[in-house]
# Entry
Amino acid sequence: MRGMRRFFDFYLKASIHVAFAVVSLSYVGAKGLNILWSNALGVVLFSGTVMGYNFIKYGLGGPFYLKVTHKSFIPMQILSFFCGALGLYGMLYLNALAYLVLLMLVAFTALYGLPVLPAQKNLRAVKGMKIYIVAFVWALATVVLPLATVGVKMVLQISSPSNPFGFIGVLTLFLSHFFLVLALMVPFELRDYLKDTPQLATLPQRFGVKKTKNIGLLWSLLFLGGHLFAGAILTWPLQMVGLSLMITLLLISGIFSSGKHSSSYFTNFWVEGIPILFALLWWVFESFL
# Structure
């Protein structure tokens, strides 16, 4: 049991679970756009997420990513370098447009984690901006990046302003993923609000616990509305309405079950696992219903 517990803790701390969540949500994005899912994209996203999250959590500003300061970080470092090699291999199968979106994601990750702004700040330290930046990056990675893998010609056909329904569908799907990630982050904000520094100006620090939960509820409903609207435009099967409702109920349940006494396993595994369940259920609904 102790060995299983250590493995499970490593699975969470090494950002493997969150990497599966990003890959899963990108699968949902590809299916929502009615385009083929790219296995190479999954490899690149998984590898990049592990590297990016571990860099932010354990890199300590950059130089210590190569020379860790604590032995417990060494397994994360080894995993990250392995993922780097795997990600480079996956990139061989992507096109130039996907490279451009990946470059944007790398740039946002660097701005988020490194002190490149005036007064040695990064985007994470800008008051009240943290969750919006994370949600934007996730939406970029899970909607725009899958779309980019089909090539410029297909992207223009699907999302060109000259094709208003396609363009609105892509935009609405992007916004629904944005609000989904915002709602997913509310339990983390509620769990950590007593530990977070006042400079972060998190939602509970600014609005209190009750209002923060209501904001999370609003974001969950905006996700639902956006996802249903995108589904109508992009002509999803009718059963996806039920799936959208199920995910929304899970989001709301996670938000209102969270607080300062929430277990880290509840947020880091169960809440962060909602996108994984989303992808699994999408596959089941599409394949068997």
About this structure: Residues 2-288 form one domain. The mean pLDDT is 87.
